[in-house]
Design goal:
Shape of chain A: globular
Radius of gyration of chain A: 24 Å
Strand content of chain A: over 45%
Radius of gyration of chain B: 42 Å
CATH superfamily of the largest domain in chain A: TM1070-like
Shape of chain B: elongated
Oligomer: heterodimer
Structural class of chain B: alpha+beta
Low-confidence stretches of chain B: 351-396, 1075-1079
Chain lengths: 452, 1079
């Protein structure tokens, strides 16, 4: 038989080239959080930030079982006085319970850890003055960023830190301000005992400074961190961000007369960062504002009052930076400011009234460049006789970058004391902005519950 | 009718002193050719020429030219003076013609219808030495002689034939042709005018023929530097300058446009390379000549274009026909490499022939008794090699490593180097990396083979893995010193594999090729990385795979591997049975079985070889091979190996979806070798630089160079290597799911094929390259040879550490774990990439293996892991739950198994700058995040290479709980699971399977319950006040019986190799008749 040497060489070469090409195209990386659950699927909740009655964030934690089954919560309340309380409660399906830490342990600042025998339980930290609330988190973090804190006279800023694991945690706190970077020695190498709680008072080292940026770097273990600011009696519970991001969104930023709204920025890099804030109003076009942030410095972009921005109820902000920055929103009425972190884009979220005041604005923005179909459901809360009652469900399409008010989708104003809104779409492209009813409007902002 | 002979006018051009002028003229006037006239042209000389000529031959005409414008112009001038001549005989003034030379040349011209005729030229002083018998040239105008320097004239060249160049000295040219060609080109006054005239003559359709019977002695005063070139315009040019510029002119005008461009590009490249070499060697004359030739050509570009037009007008021959008249390749380049290989760089630079080389040639001839071809090639036929200088190098190739003494010395040096490189492996404490866990005693290792229960995971009752049997059997030969075995593997596995590689090539290639292939095998990264990572299982494959491949090739009847037909079938047990087909197959099966016991993926390698050979045969069928059916052979091997490894086979059968993991666990695609690494055979630090490409390049060169039977072998090796590489790529990307054969084992086959190709490549250099003209094969050979030589340097570097970079310490052994006497016992859960964990386990996810060790670090009881995870799935599922973020209480889930510590390894050993460098293969980051977020795990240690978590809910493997309480307290001693027990307590044991253990209290078994869990609970009676208890294994010894059966089978088959026949006399009392068995 005639030899066919060339085809064999070609076949071998083709096999090799094919393998090389496919290998170069498919470059696998070490996966990170590929399979980890979302907040709503968590089996643990960590709630930090509450204080005793003398502190700024006196209040309680509300746990709600959104699942159809009974859940057992193994609770541990820790305080900065190194005292703790453990106990367990059983939460029936679709029921809610309140836990006031100050009644269980001594101390000034508290952290609550709940191990849940299953999924579907949510938790919300609510202050007694009903002006601040914050969802509990479901896992510790390795790093934490926030900015906009104020330590001037009349204000205080603290970090409430809970160690939810059995690992003795070690962390350091770095500060960014308009004066630049500082890493105060007393803030370095701090430790938190397993399941312990500590408080870091920023005012101890950063005196009489406004717009303070903070970075908590966890050197060992994982921590749940909440920033607590008291601004002339108004409390802010700041969720912070796990990392600087180049793009942030705020859906409900007030522009009304009498209100104040600022984007507080921090640049954690050693190079100058250019930040552009794009303001979207319903009836006006606004020229984007750009600021240059010096290395390790902070900056402010004022939205309200701003002569370039017409008072037109709520605006949607998009903060874009040349590299990752920390951006928080500070709102108020001139006498106080309340800080809030930019919401994380999610696929689904819940708007539920935990403080009994209802909401002024319940807006949602599609941050993607494609239209998103939203399913907005009104769910009546559980009654003593049974589970929740599913109400109306509205489907709507949200254009790229567009914002709508959830309340406007229903014919009647939502009765928040008897129901909640669950919003979902197919991709994590939704950013919600909730404000409490205030005058001037939009001067108190709260975060929605992620998922569930 | 005119009967006169055609008139010939001899034109003698004399220049300068012309020491041989008289002799030249005298030899012309004494010719026996009647119609010969002689015209002497004095090139710018004085009247003394006329006097000198007149003194010898008064009838000769003399023409004095005012200035010396060169030989060409002088000839042209003479031709213009003459009318009616049929031929011109252009002569130098330093020649001496034999009396019949002219008549013979004219006769030849007529007989062959040649346009140009050249005589046989001999040395002026010694007519026995040939100087020219015509010349040839390559496409670049480089003229090559057709005789060797100093070649003695025995009449061997006395054959009239066409040549390309009629060398200057005495040239007979037909007048009409000369007129058509417009004579010599005045641009070429001397040195090259002969080439130019002949080139153009052939383009015009004329033949150039050598008339060897016409003999002329030529003094070659210019070539011998007896006088300088003094023509106008050449005074500042050296001989080399003139030669190069004239060659360039000829080339630039001698081809059609397309070929001219291509030739000039090639010539520019060659000249550039030569220029670089000349500059490196400070050979400024040569550099100047190269640059000068191009500058000169550019300067005379108009004349060049004009010449092109003129030549085009007279062109009859196309370029293809012209090319066929020339020699192939680049003569100068070929000569350079030949000289470089044989005589070194300094001589290679002087590629123009020198007088000294003549002596060299003679010297060489005196000592060239045994060339390497004579030593290693059975088909060597020296006499058939054409005797020309061009081919001379083929007769005298390098004799490096051709003698047995040289080879033995080389092997001894390499072996010595290896021993030096392994010096620290002899005595250093072996780190706990790879498969270097300390072996148990010889007796304990046998017990593991027969054991009914092993502590892998949370415990398993599957049959003991056959690897224990192999180790225990091997331990017999070291008198039970089990600690010696891993050292032997580390030190001698690679040399043994190299020796096996030499055996693999025995009879197929020369001894030199075998030696080099063996060294290449040792130098390939697979073996070195296996040592560096403590992969004893891979080293077993590295050592034995060439044996397996050789036997497979024999059974598959790969050409050259079955020297003799198999013996006729004999009954099993007969002493000659081993040499039958069945016996040989059984030998292969037993070798594969032993290797598979240590590294089960070996069986896949057999499949790859079989498929590779079959695929190669599909494309290139072997002539006359009568191979055993490939699939039948592979099926037979698989079946028999499965029987020989029965305990493991049973494990695999019951493993279900985990069965493929017997071949290896899926590594993290993010830390597996890239395709580039795989193509170099690298899975570690050795060979990861560009050096690693050298041997694969040599292998590719072999594939391209090999011909004949070597090609048949090379294509098979290349096919197998390619298939291995493709499979390894698929595995590395985790595209085959659970089927993830050990990459290192796959690479061992790849390395075997690379080394085999290297051997074939060397053989091809010896045998195949000599039979082809100069071309890409020579360049490929040079590249391959250079790669092979360069590859020895990193191999030498690898010897530096004295331990082949095996770490001096390991992550595992540096951990502080609970003491071995902790009550209740404990387990350590090891997590990480399968390639770095110090013990085998099961896959949790790609890139994440889980394994446990009991009461301390991994040891001899967990050297092998069955593919069936069994009850240990509880650990795997708990981990998967944690990774998915669905639990924060992993510690409580693992506490039931008595796991006190979780070790997440990112590297096998810590990085110690300047001491040890280890590859980092991080565990999935999701795992570390998940563990960090567990509320009952505490991070104890965190470094780049390891993270250690402790379980805050640990309560020992065996624990007790008082009645009405849920608190578990460790119970019993870890060493024996025996001790005092409080009456009335419940005892829980993290030992699986639950039914295998019983708690004896005061000698009586206690009731057992499981309550839906995998852990057994025992209720201790409350009646006595003080009791002692013991957990005992109560299991039917089925595993032992299986192991015994397996061992018996091995013994029976071994006896079947003729031992029974040999021992026949023991039973019969008769000595068997000796029978010589031809194997």
């Amino acid at each position: 038989m005639r030899r066919r040497p060339i085809p064999l060489v070609i076949v071998l070469a083709a096999l090799l080239v094919g393998s090389a090409l496919v290998s170069s195209i498919a470059r696998p990386v070490n996966p990170f959080f590929e399979v980890a659950g979302t907040n709503a699927e968590s089996t643990a909740l960590y709630c930090a930030g509450l204080t005793d009655a003398k502190g700024a964030a006196f209040g309680h934690v509300a746990f709600e079982n959104t699942s159809d089954a009974r859940r057992t919560l193994a609770l541990r309340v820790s305080s900065d006085a190194k005292t703790s309380w453990t106990g367990s409660i059983v939460l029936a399906a679709h029921t809610r319970t309140l836990l006031t830490p100050s009644t269980l342990v001594k101390g000034q600042n508290y952290g609550v850890a709940a191990e849940i025998s299953g999924t579907g339980v949510v938790g919300e930290v609510v202050t007694t003055d009903r002006r601040a609330e914050l969802p509990c988190v479901d896992e510790g973090q390795q790093s934490w960023y926030a900015t906009g804190f104020d330590t001037r006279v009349g204000s205080s800023a603290t970090l409430n830190i809970l160690n939810p694991t059995a690992t003795p945690a070690v962390f350091s706190v770095s500060i960014y301000s308009s004066a630049g970077f500082s890493a105060p020695a007393p803030f370095q190498g701090l430790s938190v005992a397993p399941h312990g709680e500590v408080t870091v008072n920023l005012g101890d080292q950063i005196v009489n400074t406004t717009n303070v940026g903070v970075r908590v770097k966890v050197l060992r273990g994982a921590l749940a961190v909440t920033g607590v600011e008291d601004s002339n009696g108004t409390t802010s519970l700041v969720a912070g961000s796990p990392a600087p991001t180049p793009t942030s969104w705020f859906s409900s930023v007030t522009t009304v007369n009498g209100a104040t709204a600022q984007v507080r920025l921090a640049n954690p890099h050693n190079t100058t960062t250019s930040v552009t804030v794009k303001v979207s109003l319903a009836h006006f076009a606004v020229t984007p504002q750009t600021v240059q942030l010096a290395p390790f410095s902070t900056g402010i972009v004022t939205i309200t009052p701003n002569p370039a921005i017409a008072p037109d109820a709520y605006a949607t902000l998009k903060v874009s930076a040349s590299q990752g920055v920390v951006a928080d929103l500070a709102v108020g009425d001139g006498s106080y400011q309340q800080l809030s972190a930019p919401p994380t884009p999610v696929r689904t979220f819940t708007v539920e009234d935990f403080n009994g005041r209802g909401f002024d604005a319940t807006r949602v923005t599609n941050i993607s460049d494609q239209p998103a179909t939203l399913s907005v459901a009104w769910v009546r809360l559980a009654t003593t006789s049974g589970g929740p009652i599913s109400g109306a469900t509205v489907k709507t399409t949200l254009a790229p970058g567009a914002t709508i008010s959830l309340s406007s989708l229903f014919t009647a104003a939502p009765a928040w004391n008897v129901g909640k809104i669950v919003v979902s779409t197919r991709r994590p492209v939704l950013v919600a902005g909730l404000t409490l009813p205030t005058r001037p409007a939009g001067s108190l902002v709260v975060a929605p519950l992620n998922g569930r | 009718m005119d009967t006169r002979a055609p008139a010939v006018v001899a034109v003698v051009v004399t220049t300068g002193p012309g020491p041989g002028l008289e002799a030249t003229v005298a030899s012309l006037v004494t010719q026996d050719y009647g119609e010969l006239s002689v015209l002497v042209v004095a090139n710018g000389e004085s009247d003394t020429v006329a006097a000198r000529v007149a003194a010898v031959a008064p009838q000769v005409f003399v023409r004095i030219l005012e200035e010396n414008r060169g030989f060409a112009v002088a000839c042209n001038e003479a031709v213009r003076m003459v009318d009616g001549a049929a031929f011109f005989l252009f002569c130098h003034d330093d020649v001496r013609l034999e009396a019949n030379a002219v008549s013979l040349m004219v006769e030849t011209a007529y007989r062959t219808n040649a346009g140009v005729v050249t005589p046989k030229v001999v040395a002026y002083d010694d007519p026995l030495i040939l100087v020219h018998v015509g010349q040839t040239c390559d496409r670049f105008g480089v003229v090559r002689e057709r005789v060797e320097l100093g070649e003695i004239d025995h009449g061997q060249q006395d054959l009239e034939r066409d040549v390309f160049v009629a060398p200057g000295g005495v040239t007979l040219v037909r007048t009409d042709l000369f007129t058509t060609l417009r004579g010599f080109d005045p641009l070429i006054p001397v040195l090259g005018e002969d080439l130019d005239l002949c080139w153009r003559a052939q383009l015009a359709g004329a033949r150039v023929v050598v008339a060897p019977l016409a003999k002329v002695a030529h003094r070659e005063t210019i070539a011998a530097n007896e006088r300088a070139v003094t023509a106008v315009g050449t005074r500042r040019a050296s001989r080399q300058d003139l030669q190069r510029r004239h060659q360039l002119l000829v080339v630039a005008t001698g081809w059609n446009r397309r070929n001219t461009l291509w030739t000039l590009v090639l010539l520019a490249l060659l000249d550039s390379a030569e220029l670089a070499l000349a500059l490196v060697g400070r050979d400024l004359d040569r550099a100047g000549a190269i640059l000068g030739s191009w500058r000169w050509a550019l300067k005379h570009r108009r004349r060049v274009l004009e010449r092109r037009r003129e030549i085009h007008a007279l062109r009859v021959l196309d370029d293809g026909d012209l090319r066929r008249l020339q020699v192939a390749g680049a003569s100068r380049l070929k000569q350079f490499f030949v000289t470089l290989l044989r005589e070194g760089y300094d001589r290679a630079r002087g590629i123009l022939p020198t007088e000294a080389r003549v002596a060299d040639v003679v010297d060489d001839d005196e000592t060239s008794g045994v060339g390497f071809a004579a030593a290693f090639s059975e088909v060597e036929e020296f006499d058939e090699i054409p005797r020309s200088e061009t081919l001379a190098w083929r007769r005298r190739p390098s004799r490096l490593l051709t003698s047995f003494r040289a080879q033995a010395l080389f092997v001894a040096l390499v072996a010595l180097g290896w021993l030096i490189g392994a010096r620290n492996l002899v005595a250093m404490p072996l780190p706990l990396v790879g498969r270097l866990a300390p072996l148990d005693s010889w007796w304990s290792t046998w017990r593991h083979f027969f054991a009914s229960w092993s502590p892998n995971g949370v415990g398993t009752g599957t049959p003991g893995m056959p690897g224990y049997g192999v180790l225990a059997f091997a331990g017999t030969f070291v008198f039970g010193r089990m600690g010696v075995l891993p050292r032997l593997a580390l030190i001698f596995a690679v040399p043994l594999g190299a020796w096996a590689m030499a055996r693999l090539l025995k009879g197929r290639v020369s001894n030199r090729a075998r030696v080099l292939a063996a060294v290449a095998y040792a130098a390939l990264p697979v073996g070195l990385n296996a040592i560096a990572q403590g992969r004893v299982d891979t080293l077993v494959v590295v050592a034995g795979l060439p044996f397996v491949v050789r036997r497979l090739f024999e059974l598959l009847d790969v050409p050259g591997y079955r020297a003799h037909p198999y013996d006729d079938p004999l009954p099993f047990g007969h002493r000659g049975w081993r040499t039958t087909l069945a016996g040989q197959r059984m030998v292969l099966i037993m070798i594969v079985a032993v290797m598979s016991a240590m590294a089960p993926a070996t069986l896949l390698l057999v499949g790859l070889v079989v498929v590779g050979v079959a695929l190669a045969r599909w494309f290139e069928p072997d002539e006359g091979s009568h191979h055993y059916g490939s699939l039948r052979l592979f099926g037979g091997i698989c079946f028999n190996v499965a029987v020989f490894l029965l305990p493991m086979t049973i494990d695999v059968v019951f493993a279900g979806r985990r069965a493929p993991s017997v071949f290896g666990l899926a590594r993290g695609p993010w830390s597996t070798p890239t395709f580039s690494d795989l193509a170099r055979g690298v899975d570690g630090s050795f060979g990861s630089s560009w050096w690693g490409w050298l041997l694969p390049i040599s292998a590719v060169a072999a594939l391209l160079l090999a011909r004949g039977p070597r090609r048949a072998l090379a294509t098979k090796a290349a096919t197998i290597a390619t298939l291995t590489l493709v499979l390894a790529t698929l595995v590395a990307h985790h595209w085959l799911g659970n089927f993830a054969p050990d990459l290192d084992v796959l690479l061992a086959l790849y390395a075997t094929m690379i080394a085999l190709l290297v051997g074939v490549g060397v053989s091809a250099l010896e045998s195949d390259l000599r039979d082809v003209g100069f071309g890409w094969r020579q360049l490929t050979a040079v590249a391959g040879l250079a790669s092979l030589l360069l590859a020895s340097f990193p191999f030498a570097v690898a010897l530096a550490s004295g331990r082949f970079d095996l770490p001096t310490t390991s992550v595992a052994s540096s951990l502080a774990t609970p003491g071995p006497n902790a009550p209740g016992g404990y387990r350590v859960l090891w997590l990480g990439d399968p390639s770095i964990l110090p013990l085998p386990g099961w896959s949790v996810a790609p890139g994440l293996e889980a394994a446990t060790s009991m009461n301390g670090l991994p040891g001899g009881a967990t050297l092998f892991s069955p593919p069936d995870s069994g009850t240990s799935d509880v650990i795997i599922q708990a981990l998967q739950t944690a990774i998915a973020g669905r639990t924060v209480r992993l510690g409580s889930l693992l506490a039931a198994a008595g796991i006190s510590t979780i070790v997440v390894m990112n590297a096998a050993a810590p990085e110690l700058p300047g001491v040890q460098q280890v590859p980092l293969r991080p565990a999935p980051r999701t795992l570390v995040t998940a563990l960090t977020n567990q509320s009952d795990l505490a991070l104890e240690l965190q470094t780049a290479s390891v993270e250690v978590f402790t379980n805050s809910l640990f309560h020992g493997i065996v624990a007790s709980t008082p009645p009405g309480s849920t608190t578990l307290t460790p119970l019993f001693s870890a060493a024996s699971f025996a001790g005092a027990v409080t009456p009335g307590v419940s005892v829980v044991a993290g030992l699986a399977p639950a039914g295998a253990f019983a708690l004896d209290v005061d000698g009586h078994a206690t009731p057992r319950a499981t309550f839906g869990s995998w852990t057994p609970y025992y209720q201790v009676p409350s009646s006595p006040t003080s009791t002692s208890g013991e957990l005992v294994l109560r299991q039917f010894p089925l595993n032992g019986l299986i192991a015994l059966f397996t061992l018996s089978m091995w013994s029976v088959v071994w006896l079947g190799f003729g031992v029974v026949h040999r021992l026949e006399w023991l039973f019969t009392g008769r000595r068997p008749r000796r029978r010589r068995v031809v194997e």
